[in-house]
Amino acid sequence: xxxxxxxxxxxxxDLAPDFKEKYFKQVLDHFNYNSLGNxxxxxxxxxxxxxxxxGNGPIFFYTGNEGDIWEFARNTGFITELAAVQxxxxxxxxxxxxxxxxxxxxxxxxIPEVGLxxxxxxxxxxxxxxxxxxxxxxxxxCPVIVFGGSYGGMLSVYMRIRYPNIVTxxxxxxxxxxxxxxxxxxxxxxxDVTADFEKFKPACRDAVQGAFQKLNTLAQQxxxxxxxxxxxxxxxxxxxxDIHQLMGxxxxxxxxxxxxxxxxxxHFMGSMPAFPVKVLDWSLAxxxxxxxxxxxxxxxxxxxxxxxxxxxxxLYVECADPTGCGLGFDSYAWDYQACTEIEMCYESNxxxxxxxxxxxxxxxxxxxxxxxxxxxxxxxxxxTQYWGDDLATASNIIFSNGDLDPWANGxxxxxxxxxxxxxxxxEGAHHLDLRESNPNDPESVIMARKEESEIIARWVKAAMKxxx
Amino acid sequence: xxxxxxxxxxxxxDLAPDFKEKYFKQVLDHFNYNSLGNxxxxxxxxxxxxxxxxGNGPIFFYTGNEGDIWEFARNTGFITELAAVQxxxxxxxxxxxxxxxxxxxxxxxxIPEVGLxxxxxxxxxxxxxxxxxxxxxxxxxCPVIVFGGSYGGMLSVYMRIRYPNIVTxxxxxxxxxxxxxxxxxxxxxxxDVTADFEKFKPACRDAVQGAFQKLNTLAQQxxxxxxxxxxxxxxxxxxxxDIHQLMGxxxxxxxxxxxxxxxxxxHFMGSMPAFPVKVLDWSLAxxxxxxxxxxxxxxxxxxxxxxxxxxxxxLYVECADPTGCGLGFDSYAWDYQACTEIEMCYESNxxxxxxxxxxxxxxxxxxxxxxxxxxxxxxxxxxTQYWGDDLATASNIIFSNGDLDPWANGxxxxxxxxxxxxxxxxEGAHHLDLRESNPNDPESVIMARKEESEIIARWVKAAMKxxx
Lengths: 468, 468
Known about the structure:
Rossmann fold; eight-stranded mixed sheet; 16 helices
């Protein structure tokens, strides 16, 4: 889940609602009383009570995921809009090891310090934070609804199943809880990226599939200078590793366009025009040339047009997540998580998808992760811990997914019970429903938000009744 | 939950059913991929398939608690009896840091090695063990029912709420899930020990209450030689600490008699005659002397009659559990757990109970635990983690309790829903229902076992139906 490196970040506070930024004194290691973590760290959170019916209204709690919490606050306007209607207190909590919530400051990614970065620790952080903040704010009786998108949505699901004593219900948007737990088909992800483009113009698929083959042939036949010039690469791709890196970067451009195929331009995980999948000049597809792959690169990695050439290794960073890890501390953290609990051994193969054959097997993962972080992944752990597809005993969770989102089919697409509700949004990309309302919103997301609002209001009402 | 030090252990294998003793290669640290625990240890378990309908019958899994697993296998005959009727595979798993399941051998109780002793690690051990053994034994479709007594019963509850994907139902016998999570009245425990004796003979209470007062006066008035001779102490109790230790030892004698007030003689947590509460010669109560407190000491600490004098500090070891910790590695482990997650700040006060005023406050706990183990307890943690009394979303748990057991009122005494069932056994001591059937069993425990059997059969049947 790469953050693109092209972003011109707007001033957070200009765009975000009226949040106060605060820090919570958090337990470093919830699961070992004698570890190096026998202390506390400062965990950042954002809070606004501007809509709150103090002491009575619910608490809407965003379970922060892999990035700066302001980034999520700015791009999750649905929560504050809903809070205004339902009189809720809103909290966005930053995930440990991301943003400014670094337990050991700049040493956080050393070994063994990085070892306290786990899903379990993050959930315990949220459980402890909610419990203490409720006390502090006189909100003991206020039901808590958790919200999250993508990995944050996974965390919302986990919070509800792990801490139903603390969390009344969860809206998990675009949460690939199955595919990240090693369940399902490893070809699904890139197959679904492919499907997005195919759906828009069926000829695309063949054109791109062919273009990748041609690019590969060209590389084999020493056409590297030609490739360098056509793709405006800063350096000549002189090794097989460089070519592999180029393939990864190109595949990822398509992935990002599919994931972020919103009906208006956005600044989330990078900058993207409205309807990026449609923006491509698909007449190029007629040319049957490898170089039709250039255009996506420009859209995704050079939205501002300021780059004069592309540096393969800084624009796309290969890691244990086959969609890339970006740069900086946040990307280290995500790579570590993909090396430990979050399983993403997705492959493309140029048969079930339009991309070059690039596998990422469990063996490759183990090799990479041992070398990079000194860890051995434990396949199956997430399924053991968070129940995989065996959710029969859970309740009060909405699983929303957009049909345009390649992560969607790695999540729950069919309701499992009257209180485990799947909401599918035909015209939705990656957790579009969590974004603030927009004049360009398709009808399907408007309907989804309406349904989500009603369900959440019901949960809150029922919880209030029980506690009174 | 002391193990008495007077036990003449019978050869385990003579009394236990036909178990095979095995070891499971277990993950050392489930919650940190970069810790000192980046490896495995050998976790002991006992297994018998003598009644199992291979591949079809359920799995009865005992979630081992604070001691040698053979001790529990020998004293939990109900499970094997039930397995014979229901065609179940039986596994008794040993808790990490107890018995022979020492993750770091003799270094296990060093700091920081001891840090991997937590409830969470123990539960994850069981989750991983069940998952892998099912695979290995071709038992993927077999529903798992967990059983446990006392702390083991708490673990059974936790397994069901934490891993309902793995565990179909739980029989939690005498599991004080509330009082060990800091919920309820800290005076309840010794009040209920008192009630047992009072119920048998109302005059007892006043006699014992007065005797403790007299003993205290005697100690103040330099009557220590008199005390030494009357109580057959090996050494003169010359300091206030010695007197405090004597008081603790005496209080504990009554506690053990109440807990282990079984209708036949037993060898569990020490040796005890049948009906120990009745065994006392209560005519002594008429004497209104401090020395009526001698007799319980003899029953509890000198059942074999081999001791010629009592050594205060080896017979009773004060620790973070107000009922004492015994000797040896198992007692270190339990002390550590009482210093971290398991909260037992129980007090006696000579008003609501018949014992000397002996408090164990959260402050005293913190002081002791910091000094002994370098840890700071986190009150409220168990409630956060395992839901406290907020069990509304849980299902398929039997909470059985005996009315004679001072731990009972620290547990769930009323059914919370049709699938969260309290079974109370008027004539039952500490998890009597888990013991094998005996000609001296009172009717109430026979009825309880029958009800438990029927409920478990229903759970298994329903789970089989779902998975087919």
